[in-house]
Design goal:
heterodimer, A: alpha+beta, Methylamine Dehydrogenase, Chain H, six-stranded mixed beta sheet, 23 helices, B: Beta-Lactamase, 3 domains, five-stranded antiparallel beta sheet, 13 helices, Ccz1 (chain B), CCZ1/INTU/HSP4 first Longin domain-containing protein (chain B), RMC1_N (chain A), RMC1_C (chain A), RMC1 (chain A)
Amino acid sequence: MGKYQASSSSSSGNGLSGLGSLSHAYIQYPPLRCDIPGAAGVMYDDGNKLLLVPSPSKVYSWPVNQQPSDDRPTITPIKEGPVLGVRFSLDGKILAVQRSHHEVEFINKETGMVFRQQCKPGTERILGLFWTDCPTCDLVLVTSSGLELYSLYLGRNGLKLLEAKRSNVSWYVYTHESRLVLLASGMQCKTLSGYQFSAGGIVRLPKFDVLMTKAEVNRKPVLAPEDIRIATMYGRLYCLQVDRVAMQLNLYRFYRDAVVPQGCLPIYSRNVALSVVDNVLLIHEIDSKVVLLYDILSEPKSTISAPLPLLLRGAPLHGSSSRGFETANTSGNTSSEPDLLGNLTSAEDQIYDKGWVFVNPDIVLDHVHGLLWKIRLDLEAIAASSSDIPSLLSFLQRRRHEASKAKMLSIEVIRSMIIERQPLPLIASAMDVLTSSYVRLSKPLNAYDRTASERVAQTVPRPSTHHQGSQGSQVSSAPVRRGPDDDVVSRVVEGFVENGKDVSTTAHGDEEPSTSRWTQGSSDQDDQDSDYVSSRVDEPCANTPAADGFKHTNLRDISKMPSRRPSTGEIESSSSTYQANNPPMARESGRQVRQQSQKEISVVDPLAAMRDATSPLISPEEMQQNVFNVIEEEMTVDSTFLVAAILEYMRSAASEQIKVNSGLHVLLIQLLAQEQRYYELWQLVIGKVLPPSRPVAIQLLETGAQHESTRKLGMDMLRQIHGHTEYIKELLLEGRILEGLRYVRQNKVDSVAPASFLEAAISSNDPQMLASVFRFCLDFVPNFSHTPDFTMYSSIVSQQCSTSA
Amino acid sequence: MSRGQIEGQELDKILFFSPANCPLPSQLSVVGLSEGLITFTSSLVVQRDIVGRKRISNLISVQVVEKSKETEEALREGALRAVLKDAHNLFVLFYGSLRALLQSHPRGDVARSCLHAFFPDYLSDFMTGKKFRIPSISESLTHRGTVQLFSPQRETLLEAQSLQELLKSWSGGGMVRHVMILFHNILLSSTLSPADTTTLFLYATLRMMPSSLSQAPRSRSSSRRENPAAGPAGLLASNLNNALGPSRLRNLFTNLTTSPSSDVVPNPHISDAHDSSVDDQGTRSSVPRPLVHEGWWRDADNFLCTDAWGSETGRSKMLPNVTLRQSEERLNLCVYQFRSLTLVMLVPKSGGSDLIPNLQGQLLEKAAHKIQKLEEKVVKEWPGSNAWHVAGYRYLYNDSNNKVSRFSPASKVATLSLAIQVTATIKEEVKVPSVAVSCFLTVQPLFTMVQESLAALNRIRQEIDLETGRSERSSSMEDRELELCVRTKQNAWVIVRTRGGLELYTVLEKASNTLLLACDAVEKLSKRYFNGSFSSD
């Protein structure tokens, strides 16, 4: 594995920090800078993926996904005044600025029109707002007394209240990625209720209480918004809760009508921050300044690799050795960008500085220096440091952000496994990982994908229609809040069996945990025949793979929005009236509802992902070309072992019903022939391990030049697959002309010219043979007597006959 | 090298003679006759076999079978020869070639003791009661010297291959040289050459099947003491005397001078296995008896153990040696059996003393699970003992290139015509109230019917054997194709097709079939079950 190491360090570019020090996660230089004098802070609008910096009279915005980042911001003028939060509408036309706890101002960028929305003064406070692409409303205001759903009336320059969902709210968390808002209530703020504003409608999630360990007997802890995080990993929605007393991170997974605890992860520092990068959960242990990486789909839940610091990479500093993040270098800042350097240096000095805010999913805002960093994974470093190869491979196969790199690494891993002659069982399980992830993502027809595709069907049309009318500019999340942003929804199909067992529950008393382990298939089944009222936790058809995403494409993200339709029983907001209460989700409504409700709350469609050309999946062709052929050409491994590896791959592919291309079969034949293992070759052909195909047959014939019965095998195969032309050619080469004629007649072959038979007969120097063939042609080849062949060969025939006579 | 050419030393020629109680003068006269025949035939340009005498000319030894006149027509020379070939192959597998034995020990005592240890056991398989059962027409739809190959589904076969490769890959490869996997008495997969596979397969099916294993390990030392010690001149095992009695069959091994190419390198392998017998002049022989009945038993860890190779104390798991014909390698035989799955592994002898325990440990640890999985899969896919039955046909398929055959199950060979007959009879005897009676009535004629068509088949096979033998000798490389349709007295059809080393014998007992229908039926059989290998195109 040393080789990945090498490549990883080279990939860190000119980064000083790459050399000598390892990290599995890094932030890439240059950051997005937003040095605006007099700015009121840095905000991140996750709906549009914009970095927003409000100053008293302007809002500067930078698109985050642009590479390289554009330093010139878009400027939207606003009236002077305090700014608590800013958010652009999803189409970017309207800017919502939260001016105070009671008032939000909307600015139409196109027309310059401004209108305001206020809440009841005195009794409620506006906690925040967000724009949605859910079909029923455009904007949601979160106030201390609940949610208010509005739609935009641009013509009238106003908002129309569609519905209000009343409840006491202490604080809330929202991410656009999940379209999920969590409202905290109660004395301890530990009762959370959620709504999902998906493209399919509004879904109300059951209330649930998070577990909090008491620090002291008489003091009840209060849950802070920083301790709650909505995370989307593999298309599943999780609520992550930091319990600083118990020093653990509790995971809850959202289903449509249940919230199921999923265990916990240890944390080692009271001060932690969370990021999700490419579906990998990063726990930043701020105190000890290291990052722990978890992949929720790997079992058991343990860190992917050793804790290592977060590094800065690619900074144009020289001479500095990377000493990790803490001291990265303060010297040598004399490079070409002097104005930036000071800034950078100090920033570097202060990785995990107090000014850092971790925003969902993988963004770091540095309020002090006005920088935005994106956290990335160093797959090479992870690959280099991982010793459990099968789980490393399955980790790599799930990567979507740097799919081509993951693919390259996977190929390299498997190749070097063979070259290093790792034990066959290990290679076998590595191959199993590759084939099973290949089959899950590339076979749309199997069980789980069916549901997935259904869903897609629902989803896809949505995006185009989504909110024509909604335009409101919105407030961005307040700078201090950590949470909300998001973007990529990605999802991966995993065959991962989940343990649904401790489904303890949740505010809805009526659900009861399903204790069975489920897989996708089974969940699918549930979908089909759940006749009883949802007294069980619905297993969502989870695992649809989805691939997803690149955070860089907003549109795409939107289009991937969950297309789940709201269950019909759910309350939809009726025009302007609002109902204060939501009846518990219409469980009693029909079967259809149940079916719906058994789906997971999640986002995204799987199929798009699979078709993604840049997925790390390795097809049999690529296996052959990039692994087996390469090894064979380099002759680094003896052919016995290579044969074993190929057979192992074929076994693995066969168990997943993947068709292996005949190129691999041909290679296998060549290798076996090299070792003179003809009898084994014969067994493989007879047992259809090498299924009949033209390339295989031809290779058998070629190999058969040294081994007669292998040649026969090839001939038999040619006949079996009706390779008429080749078969007859071989027969003629062997001088079996009459047999060839019989074959032609029997199988009605017309692709072989009569002349080839006649020529073969002539070269056999047997006048009788020639006469027979000629006669055959006369009798059975239509219009033979009118072809030039006839005149030519009839003279030869008569000539030969006369000489022989 | 010739032995016993000097007058007065004729007995030297005889290495083994069965039955042993045959008077020496008759033994000598048989030997003389054989010798004469061989000398005579070798002087002819075209060598021909003499009817009634079988010989294996490339051996220094000759076996003569004298058979009874009355069953003559039921005998097929090829079948008899196959019995001897099998014997020879097995002998070479365990003892190395006889010629090498004689060269390394010119006195012949080692060779004699080996022969005496081997043949009685081998021949006892052919004994039913006191009668020697020679291959007869009832076996005309089988072919000796071939394996029966089962091709499970692709996935399962790949599992088997994967297991095979796993075993072979241990310790950087070479720890297990070859693997053969059997399911019941059917071959699943083998990495050996066809010839070695056949021989080892034969041995495994004879002595290692669960039914032929000994129930528990036991001390066999007493029985081994009775081992026919190699006396100087054809002194014989008493048990053999009793067993064979005054049989009409005689087996004789004698060294003759047929092959002038006597410059064969002495087989170095055999000496270490037989040192003790040399030293002791055979008085206390530890010559292995690989074919002794119940010589193997299954240990708790599923490994097969044997004491047939001698049971030195302290070496409970002694692994027998075998010699591969193709590579002349001498390897250890290690067998693992899980339920109906038997894994025969050949391990190099040079691996050191801890090789075997090491191998066994690895196998138990890493492969046992795989083996179990494979067994379950194969059991699921195995269609049962009538797997190869094709309704309406009785057939034998023989692939002489790869030494594989497939044939109708023996039970079906009998019942097929029974069924026909029964229906026919019931038609005739509608008045008979009891079906049982009618069945009873029909059994007798039926039997003769089977006899008849099989006998016809047997004769045809005899012809084909001659024909193929001739073409082999003439070494014409061309692909011989042959189709033969014979209507027997009982209106059965016997149809033979051969093509490029493949043979298909079919017996159809539909009296109403015309030649055309019968040929079509065989064509169908060929297309459906044999990839169209015999299709007449």
